[in-house]
Design a protein that fits this description.
This protein is of the alpha/beta class. Helices cover about 25% and strands about 20% of the residues.
């Protein structure tokens, strides 16, 4: 699907076909979700799908996780008419911050931070990231919010995989993502049928056979 076409009938998650496969090898994410942001209707429908479950909920702030969560988080905040707060990788904010260690998808320990004057006790937060694979980054963000007395009212991402970490999050928090149930096996396997529409470029674009995953 090109970046100008809008299907006459937009089935649930139609815009997921816009996402591009990895052509740079195993040190990169297995796909590029940001290609759908280039398509105005796709971005609009993606955001609407993510906010649908939270339309009637008491939410005070939307919090986006560094870095791609900033795109969806800001769009969701505008849609819900709420304020927007960033969780950054440590060392980027020039104000007083609170930090939290976490393990990302590579199992490396890292540090995230957010400003101390935005999330106060009782503030209800919707946490947004682009993707959840292992769930380590999202769990770190939850801990950071809750340590400040904030309440996690929900979590949202384009896809929350059925990994151990993703399943743990789904069982404990209200959540939304954009993937229809019938497509989840493809997302869990890190190979989408829609990739066949892209011209092959490198061996990494061939359907994987048990290779290590590298994503978000």
């Amino acid at each position: 699907m090109d970046l100008k076409t809008v299907p006459a009938s937009r089935e649930p998650g139609w815009y997921l076909k816009l996402m591009a496969p990895n052509v740079k090898g195993s040190s990169y994410a297995w796909l590029d979700p940001s290609r759908l942001y280039c398509h105005s209707q796709a971005l609009l429908d993606c955001v609407e799908d993510l906010v649908q479950r939270f339309r009637d909920d008491a939410i005070d702030l939307v919090v986006g996780i560094d870095a791609m969560g900033f795109i969806l988080g800001a769009a969701i905040a505008v849609t819900l008419r709420k304020g927007f707060v960033t969780i950054r990788k440590a060392g980027h904010l020039c104000v007083e911050t609170r930090t939290q260690t976490y393990r990302d998808y590579t199992d490396c320990e890292k540090v995230m931070e957010t400003r101390t004057d935005a999330i106060s006790p009782g503030v209800r937060v919707l946490l947004v990231d682009q993707w959840v694979e292992t769930g380590g980054t999202m769990q770190g963000a939850i801990q950071l919010v809750e340590r400040q007395g904030g309440v996690v009212a929900g979590i949202a991402a384009i896809c929350m995989e059925d990994s151990d970490g993703g399943s743990w999050l789904k069982s404990r928090y209200k959540w939304s993502h954009c993937v229809p149930p019938q497509l989840m096996p493809q997302f869990n396997a890190h190979w989408l049928d829609s990739f066949q529409a892209f011209p092959p470029s490198l061996p990494s674009q061939e359907q994987p056979q048990g290779h290590p995953s590298h994503v978000f």
